Amino acid sequence: MLSYIFVLMKKWEPHLRLLSILLIMVGLLPDAFGQSGRMTTREYINKYKDIAIKDMKTYKIPASITLAQGILESGSGNGKLARKANNHFGIKCHKGWHGKRVYMNDDKRHECFRKYKNPEASYRDHSHFLTTGERYAFLFRYPITDYKKWAYGLKRAGYATNPKYPQLLIHYIKEYHLDKYDRGGGTSKRTVEKPKESRKSRKAKMYQTPVIASFVKVRASMYGRPVLENNHRRLIVVKRGDTFKRVAAEFEIGMRKLIRYNDLKKTDILHPGDLLYLEKKASKAEKGYKYHIVKQGETLWKISQLYGIRLGSLLERNNLPRHYQASTGTKLRVR
Predict the structure, then answer these.
(1) Do 206 and 161 fall into the same domain?
(2) Alpha-carbon distances, residue 11 vs 4, 14, 21, 24, 168 (angstroms)
């Protein structure tokens, strides 16, 4: 009986060998060394955790979030996009990408994805992508150790279309204890601790005017332009050659939104030195500022920009008509 089986095996050996090769190629059968050729999630974590931790210290993105996104988006490094383009985070080309690219079907057919020289470059670009994209800016107000807020924040910012995206990230973080890599990461570079003010200094501040030079620099754009913060809102100082279109493209924000955030019209022209907000302004000035004394040459629009408040709110707070021209010395309430 055994000899008969041996003869049959010899007869079918070429066919069995071909079948086994095909099964190995599609990942259904281990190869000759007992490995599938696929990286396990633990192997993936061990391989890339040092990069995630290093980037966390530079960009202030939790290492746990970076690793969880890498695991989810790349299938622990086994996904087609990761293998073909070293793209571990599913980042599409978007405007301003001048590097190599590949095309794959995703939410739509034949979509453009970024291609990297190696996985390390993908990790670095992921950090850069989050820190320069305006829609992700609010994330950096969260503690670096609060991975749950980061997970839900990424979904709210539109990073992924999957409604379960936050839960999936949190699952991987808990399953593999990725939050241990967040310890020692420091605080967000956009979180600025301000010293408590005395009652006397708060009273003096009531008639003070915000100074642009004192605005906190929270980061820089992809072109190195400083992004400042005033009244808890991010803004830039307009430079020569700036237009709504150029600024909108630089910060990946809709041009109409940019115009609306700053109480302007499409026909308005930007001038060097103007303050331009990258998000909706507040309804009142920062705590401590209460009144503003109009100086020569100031317009209500410039005053509203200086305090980071909406022009409509400034007019309403002072019961003024839309096109009111404030004279020098006028006392305006800003809070």
Answers:
(1) no
(2) 11, 8, 18, 22, 49
Q: So what's the pLDDT on residue 28?
A: 41
Whole-angstrom distance, CA of residue 244 vs CA of residue 248: 6
27 in Cβ contact with 36 (< 8 Å): yes
User: Residue 333: what residue type?
Assistant: R
What is the identity of the amino acid at 69?
Q
**254 and 144 in a common domain:** no
What is 18-50 written as a DSSP string? HHHHHHHHTTSS--TTS--SPPPHHHHHHHHHH
CA distances from 133 to 12, 236, 251, 278, 306 (A): 59, 14, 6, 11, 24
Q: Is residue 8 part of a domain?
A: no
212 and 275 part of one domain: yes
Q: Are residues 63 and 119 in the same domain?
A: yes
Q: List, for residues 170-211, the tens digit of each pLDDT value.
A: 999 999 999 999 986 544 444 434 445 555 555 555 667 888
Residue 317: per-residue pLDDT: 94
Cα separation, 317 vs 295, in Å, equals 19
- If asked whether residues 101 and 154 sit together in one domain, one would say yes
pLDDT beneath 50, residues of the chain: 1-10, 13-14, 16-36, 186-195
Assess whether 213 and 120 both reside in one domain: no
Q: What is the pLDDT of residues 303-312, one digit of tens each?
A: 999 999 999 9
79 and 176 together in one domain: yes
Considering its fold, how many domains does the chain have in total?
2
Task: Tell me: do 165 and 210 sit in the same domain.
Answer: no
Domain residue limits at 52? 41-182
* Polymer length of the chain: 335
CATH number reported for the structural domain that contains residue 161 in this entry: 1.10.530.10
Spell out the SS3 assignment of 89-158: CCCECCCCCCCCEEEECCCCCCEEEECCCCHHHHHHHHHHHHHHCHHHHHHHHCCCCCHHHHHHHHHHHC
